[in-house]
Amino acid sequence: MNANNLPTIYKHPNDVQLRSKQINLKTRQEKIYKLLVEIVSQCPPEDALQEFKRLFIDYFGSVNLNIRPVFSEIYFINNEQEFCDTLKRCCYILVNHWISQRKTRYIQELINIFENYHSHYNSTQSTPINIYKKWLDNFINSRDYEGLKLFAYRHDNKDKTKWANRYIAYLLVPQYCDKNNPKEQQEAAAKLSKQIRNRFKFELAMYIARSQSAASSETRYKNPSALGDNVLRIIKLIVIKRGVFNYENIANIFIKQNQNELLKDFKKSLHKYLFVSVKNSELVNILKQSLEELLAYWKAEENEEPINDILLLKICIRVIDSLTIENGREPSQLFTLLLSQGHPLTLVVILLKIILICPDARNHLEIRIANLITYYQNDSEDNCKWLINFIEIFNIMFAIYVENVEYNLIKMEEDIDCNSQSNLEAYRVFSQLK
Questions:
Q1: Are the CB atoms for 13 and 66 separated by under 8 Å?
Q2: Of 18, 113, 125, 33, which is closest to residue 73 (Cα–Cα)?
Q3: Cα 233 from Cα 273, distance rounded (Å)
Q4: What is d(CA 234, CA 378) in angstroms, rounded to the nearest whole number?
Q5: Are 103 and 45 within 8 A, CB to CB?
Q6: Rounded to two decimals, what is the model's pTM?
Q7: Are 322 and 288 in contact (CB under 8 A)?
Q8: pLDDT digit of tens for each residue in the chain (434 aa)?
Q9: Strand ranges (E), 278-426
Q10: How many of the other CB atoms lie within 10 Å of CB of 352?
Q11: Phi and psi (nearest 5°) for 407?
């Protein structure tokens, strides 16, 4: 007998008369999903939680396995993967609805149901109930469950001390980009990530406004970044570069000039574009050489093909990987080199320039940011300050260049050189919706 499947003799009595091929598992699952959708849409969250608990927790501890007809549908699932997939989608039916209704505090209550669950199954007896309980235990110890807990981060006080939890917006990206996830999970992850980003943009704009106000000492708004008061100076340094030849304009010029170029020529143009306005240094020269070699060998067999949207996306993804996580598991050598030598802004600028010419690569970039956070999440905050600094600058740079808030510098003293970065105190930052 396989532990991942129920033995034939232990199938539900009502199922004995049916052949396995005649069992429409999808129909049975849809009954469960429909029930939960109706409950979560029509009933208070507390009732929805109670019904969920009855279905997946209390049901298997009951002597009467026919408490409610639809609940017995779960008992027809005789494969662990199908059981976990059903449980997972049921969780996200609740989560997705609560996020849409701004009732996210109940997500923690859902997590509490699992946290308070204590199984009492006999591992020596392969009864259906013991097998189902084992499957439930396995789910609670799975990556799927860890992903579910991300949605409750704001209501879990003990986890607020974990530095990685400040970047849930990125950790959710792989969930809504994975088409194998239930649609409710994809929708919930996208919604919550967007809500968190919008809150960051709003709090950043409010902090900037209040921190430059004469009454800031009394009405100081919370700084949403981890950069401290230095965030205002960093924003000024970024915004002051937004003249005629800012990153957006340079990107637009690049796109127009290199349409339909052969791939071999486009790779050279791309390399040159990425380092326009990037200050030269020994480290930057190493980076230039590494990317030049990477681009030269990348898909050399297609060098005579004209560049198109697909090739553009692929080449941008390849460069992103070389600058973040190259093998899909560990940080790349270039990423480690740049940040260990204190060049987070250089890396962020290059990543920004990639996204400005290929917005479709942004999800992939943010997945790589999530991968980096996950890779280092068990390290202490002190040991990860260099990574946190990079992510915070990344947040600020992208909030300024690719989001819907426009930042501008206003010179408060007329006799100050408007292009001087040494007189930032003479400027004030103003933000407005684009």
A1: no
A2: 33
A3: 27
A4: 28
A5: yes
A6: 0.86
A7: no
A8: 455 665 443 445 544 444 454 457 788 888 889 989 999 999 999 999 998 998 888 865 444 444 455 555 666 677 899 999 999 999 999 999 999 999 999 999 999 999 998 876 666 666 777 888 889 999 999 999 999 999 997 644 444 568 999 999 999 999 999 999 999 999 999 999 999 999 998 888 888 887 776 655 545 668 889 998 888 888 888 887 766 568 999 999 999 999 999 999 999 999 999 999 888 889 999 999 999 999 999 999 999 999 999 999 999 999 999 999 987 789 999 999 999 999 999 999 999 999 999 999 999 999 999 999 999 999 999 999 999 999 999 999 998 888 877 777 777 666 555 455 556 666 778 777 77
A9: 405-411
A10: 20
A11: -110, 135
Q: Where are the beta strands (DSSP E) in 185-258?
A: none
**Which residues, other chains included, contact 262 with Cβ-Cβ below 8 Å and sequence gap of 6+?**
303, 304, 305, 306, 307
d(CA 99, CA 414): 49
Structural domain spans, the chain: 8-161, 225-403
Read off the amino acid at residue 87: L
Structure tokens at 284: 């930057």
Token pair listed for 324: 């973040």
Q: How many CB atoms lie within 10 A of CB 199?
A: 13
Cα distance between residue 392 and residue 381, in whole Å: 14
Contacts with 241 (C-beta within 8 Å, 6 or more apart), sequence order:
247, 277
Give residue 274's identity as a one-letter amino acid code.
L
Degrees, nearest 5: CA angle 328-331-333: 120
Give the residue among 176, 89, 78, 171 at the shortest CA–CA distance from 131.
78
The rounded distance, in Å, linking the Cα atoms of 78 and 6 is 5
